Write the structure tokens for this entry.
Amino acid sequence: MRLLLVEDDVMVASGIKLGLSDAGYAVDWVGSAERALEVTQSESFDVAVVDIGLPLMDGLALTQALRKNGHSMPVLILTARDALQDRVQGLDMGADDYMVKPFELPELLARLRALLRRSQAATSATLSFGPLELDTAQRQACIRGSAGVAQAIELGPREWTVMEYLLLQAPKPANKDKLLQALTGWDKEITPNAVEVYISRLRGKLEPHGIALRSIRGFGYRLELLAP
């Protein structure tokens, strides 16, 4: 998943970015609302984490501007303000969630997972397709057999990102360009051919269990169940 972090404090931003990157997010960081509005004109993000106390335009005004510009990605506001009025104002201006600093990283990650599930109409931390199950909280993947016995599947960090994105889109196809963006940010480059490598690896792990990864020419990939 690709995340936009909008935070003007370099030390705070570095800590958050490190924690989110370790959790598997492709994180792009900007230090102002103005820069965030600029990048969202040409780039797509799955979720945004926005500090309320930004210079010039604050995080609430940014959230409102994003909504006016037609961006529907979930927005989580970070703030040192804990008054009820501030929280209500943030939600009314288009934010999806609100966290008060200081906070613990596990809670931030849990809230982001919940926002992403909600945005993709998923209701559980476990994503599934046929016998395939992904526990996004524990970051564990398995194949659930007919007798209920689970067989673990080992996934590398980027294989996990691809699999999670495919499951969030299923049964609809996943767009290859957006999948590429979910894998990387500005500071890392992955070629479209590299995406094919991860897709090929996943095919090798899924097809023995009756799950195919179909290529949709000119668009992307779709999970499908193989005929028994």
Notes: The mean pLDDT is 88. The radius of gyration is 18 Å.
